Amino acid sequence: xxxxxxxxxxxxxxxxxxxxxxxxxxxxxxxxxxxxxxxxxxxxxxxxxxxxxxxxxxxxxxxxxxxxxxxxxxxxxxxxxxxxxxxxxxxxxxxxxxxxxxxxxxxxxxxxxxxxxxxxxxxxxxxxxxxxxxxxxxxxxxxxxxxxxxxxxxxxxxxxxxxxxxxxxxxxxxxxxxxxxxxxxxxxxxxxxxxxxxxxxxxxxxxxxxxxxxxxxxxxxxxxxxxxxxxxxxxxxxxxxxxxxxxxxxxxxxxxxxxxxxxxxxxxxxxxxxxxxxxxxxxxxxxxxxxxxxxxxxxxxxxxxxxxxxxxxxxxxxxxxxxxxxxxxxxxxxxxxxxxxxxxxxxxxxxxxxxxxxxxxxxxxxxxxxxxxxxxxxxxxxxxxxxxxxxxxxxxxxxxxxxxxxxxxxxxxxxxxxxxxxxxxxxxxxxxxxxx
Length: 436
Known about the structure:
alpha+beta, 6-stranded antiparallel beta barrel, rod-shaped, 5-stranded mixed beta barrel, 37% strand
């Protein structure tokens, strides 16, 4: 009897344990299949903006001097001055047209000029004296000729004898010989004067050549001589770089060469000038670092580096562009309207770019376990993730040509906390700020 009671007690205990386990599993299943709580995220939206976008291609290159000039004396001498007495000439100096660059010993050439001038004045005085003597001889010749004609007329009337006529003829011949001699002396004096004047002009040119001046506004690139050094004609004294105009030499690969043609206008950005603007306090937002340029040469063949060295001429009247600066030439290829997605509004999903847009109405599916699933339609705002595969990056925005279906209200704040098809609460819609 006692054994039977023990068996019944164990059986009841097992049944109770199984029942308890069943109740626990049911509770667990009920918790596992509990309908999710869908909570709305707070976001801020803005209409999908549209603006005109310029498609550009950029080419980089170095600014070079368009013209370099080696200044030299045409005469030999000793350098006595570089620059002026108050301002010695140095490399990287800015010189203006007509400014003195160098000078040879001036007294030597001035003295030669004084001697040549004195010789010219002496020859001029001798020429004037011979001219006066010639005039006097010509006057005597006229008198002798008149006396001869009168004697001949009287001889024809037998008023004078033949000896008188012969005497007047001798006077005439002597007077004519005197005129010829005076003419020869005058010509010799004129020749000496011409020689003296030539010597004076040479000496005057030497005085002028002893001073070297700048032919145009330029930058001093090199001064290879020193004061006191003897130089020969044609020896470089100063190397000048013309800064009135400069050229930007672009290294262009073959595939992009058709984008450039001679006479084409381009816009050149010079970062060094932007830095200068920023240091002067305008934040580098001005346009002083942007210069208009014109393509002046597209080479028919590539250089040794395999690139085509395309040249762009830039006006440099203000002298701010210097050889060695880096320039970026922009070429306008096309202009089309594009939809703008700010970079701050975009989200990354792995390597893909996406954006969230708000639409009204969504379907919620509830899993009720063994009971089944229930779909509930909710007329509320929901965020939908749309991937952007074809886009253009412009500054701080992604540009797309076609707006995705239903992509009118772009989420610009709160998108980092969103999931696809998640209900949202839009606190405000910002106004569109599309650029013209």
